[in-house]
Amino acid sequence: MPDTLPPSLLPFRVGPPVQVEALAARFRSRQARVAVIGLGYVGLPLTLALVEAGFHTLGVDADPARLAQLGAGRSPLRQIPAEVIRGALATGRLRFAAEGLAEADAVLVCVPTPLGPHREPDLSAVEAATCRIAATLRPGQLIVLESTSYPGTTRLVMRPILEETGLRCGQDFFLAHAPEREDPGNAQHPTASIPRVIGGTDPASLDLALALYGAVVSRTVPVASADVAEAVKLTENTFRAVNIALMNELKLVFDAMGIDVWEVIEAARTKPFGYMPFFPGPGLGGHCIPIDPHYLAWQARAHGVATRFIDLASEINAAMPRHVLDRLAEALDRQQGRGLRGSRILVIGLGYKRNLEDLRHSPALQLMEMLESRGAEIRHLDPLVPIIPPLAEHPGLAGRHAITGAAESLAGFQAGLIVTDHDGVDYRTLAATLPLLVDTRNVCARLGLAGPHIVRA
Predict the structure, then answer these.
(1) Where is the UDP-glucose/GDP-mannose dehydrogenase C-terminal domain (predicted)?
(2) Cα–Cα dist 276/265, whole Å
């Protein structure tokens, strides 16, 4: 957080007392104006849900190219068709711009919260967005952080920046946390259908946030504070990370025993109580599950508490790409009498999850780099990623083109490695053509494909 704001951000805009109930009524009647900062996998679906609910909505993003793309009715995300963007623009209730936050009655912040170089929270985007809001903050505005962060971020990072304007939180402006729950690519759970947990920094802020979100989503779940709301999101994602780690470890255990872990999971999930299925894989991906447990562990250490369970889960999950690489190397040696060096390997599926082009923290990219470091020649097959875009963490992979997946394009490969099981891939052709197919997702078994050249990893 910056020590002080520039003088231009210190106008001391103290006005008459804000009529909280009147503002809440504007939210409930959808007469209020709402702005969303950050138009990515979280912010863009939220923006469209607000428009669909009837709010006049401003979409703001730090990327001018994205604003121009959206303003022209084109979608930057495959799971949101361009016609949805155009339809929202046609209502007259949506616009995309770099300015205009002062006009909004509510500003929702949906910016990235990655890790720093030492796995510490990086809140630079949250701080920048908060300073941007502070530049035009006026009495009667509700500010809501949706970005995932550690307990205390809304209260201890955002609030001081906003109060440097001279306005008082809970009296002049209002501040809450509503942790995002977007599941990119999941059509079964659209934004408006997902219950939203909401915590305020004070009772008035909570009431206003409940009024706003209650006009957009199917259910709101109030909690005692913004800190509690922040803890809820970290609990949800740490729960997933820990249970995935458990299944990854059980996979290694059962492999050593000659037991099919996938069969075990399918049988166990028939129990109607006391069990929830999680699945092993080649490593964690996406912006949430690999990141959020580290936010919780970092804050726990600041309070003098060790997180041995969380740390162990992170260690197990981080080791899975190495396990996959070892399984591939063993299969090549056993079946073809060759090592990774000089072998042509086809990496199948780059997105971090099925049917999504999102490459954030995808284990496929890590595996590609690991394979090349061992001397393998790598190509990829992914109908959703025809060209790998520039990526800060994997600069050497940018610009690489996918192969088509036709049988003739598969000639000359010694092995295929299924990392992500997209529906749009012809696995039968892969199984019939490639001399070795290593499957980290059990997709071949689901399709009834078997043979000595198909190996689970």
Answers:
(1) 346-446
(2) 9
What is the pLDDT, as a whole number, of residue 406?
86
d(CA 67, CA 47): 13
- At 96, the amino acid letter reads F
Closest residue by Cα to residue 107 from 57, 165, 40: 57
Strand partners, 198: 222
pLDDT tens by residue, 166-202:
999 999 999 999 999 999 888 899 999 999 999 999 9
Please state which of the four CATH numbers 3.10.20.30, 3.20.20.60, 2.40.50.140, 3.40.50.720 is assigned to the domain occupying 18-224.
3.40.50.720
E strand residue ranges, 210-339:
220-222
DSSP annotation of 158 reads I
Query: What is the C-alpha to C-alpha distance for residues 234 and 409, in angstroms, rounded to an integer?
Result: 44
Q: Which runs of consecutive H residues, i.e. helices, occur in 154-202?
A: 159-163
Q: Domain residues of the chain, as ranges?
A: 18-224, 266-456
Tokens of 103: 């006009």
| Predicted pLDDT of residue 16 | 58
Q: Count of alpha carbons within 13 Å of 439, Cβ hemisphere only?
A: 24
Q: Which residues are catalytic?
A: 288
| CATH code of the domain made up of 266-456 | 3.40.50.720
**What's the pTM?**
0.92
Q: Give how far Cα 2 sits from Cα of 107, 123, 127, 257, 265, Å.
A: 21, 11, 8, 55, 49
Strand bridging mode 106-109 / 196-200: unpaired
Distance, in Å, from the CA atom of 363 to the CA atom of 244, rounded to the nearest integer, reads 14
- % of the chain residues with pLDDT over 70: 96
Q: How long a stretch of residues is the chain?
A: 457
